[in-house]
Amino acid sequence: MVPRPVWGPQGTVFGPLLFPAFINYMPEVTTSATRQFADDGLLYREIRTEANSTELQRDLDALGE
Known about the structure:
Blueprint: H1 15-29, E1 33-36, E2 41-44, H2 50-64
Antiparallel strand pairs: 1-2
């Protein structure tokens, strides 16, 4: 199991308050394309070279910080 940052325990009253803050923050810290939905978010990039893969990984890492 990979450790990941957690803003609060699952199922708490803070979940609905913290999720919009996180999802709205995505486009500000990534260079990959993002799509936002009511209760979900998507980060994506076309991978044609190793550099594309590296940039996507940097974006994923930035979301975890």
